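Hey, resending since the last one bounced:
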Amino acid sequence: MSKLQRRGQRLWARFWMRYAGLGSIGRLATRLASWGAPPYKARGYLARLNPHGYISPQAQLHHRDLQLNGHVFVGDRVIIYQSGGGGPVTLEQGVHLYGDTIIETGEGGQVRLGAETHVQPRCQFSAYKGSIRIGRRVEIAPNCSFYPYNHGTLPGQPVRTQPLQSKGDIIIGDDVWLGVGVIVLDGVTIGEGAVIGAGSVVTQAIPAFAIAIGVPAQVVRMRTQTADNGQIKERSA
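The structure tokens again:
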């Protein structure tokens, strides 16, 4: 694509994104703005062209209590779903949700993603009984899952018919990094600045600025930020 063509596409997108929104006309405008735009993360600039952000024409939003707080990016095939008794879903300023991520609430559960949090493809947020509260600037790698509930396992009764149980909400502090395929279970708090290694299953609280890995996740060392020629050092716990 030539420089002139790129400029023309951006002018086209800027024009239509002025009318983008969640209504039928707004979704049509978004579809027109997307025409000719590059795919995937290269469409992030579209979210900056409208205070309501960019909602992919392929996203499915079936939620009456969805709050978008400015310049959010909702990518292709993202699903935001409200089941019976589900609480609100709140996406703060600048949240990015990439393809095939699912957020659902039911039985009183809520989901809140803090400002500038980025969720990579194929993540699952299932807020039933408990809620999921994610801080600001959290980086969530692909295939991560968050379950603030569990099924009962009493004998003599199919698991699918037993009521859901919860040990409490999932709370993740600001500036946390979660590696590929991390699973976070009910009642877990992950402190500010913590790093969770790929494939870990988090079943208990992780302190701030800790690095944790494994099944179940265990702290292997602490992150220590010390001034030394502007560098960040790591020191064993």
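Confidence is low (pLDDT under 50) at residues 226-237.

Sorry for the duplicate.
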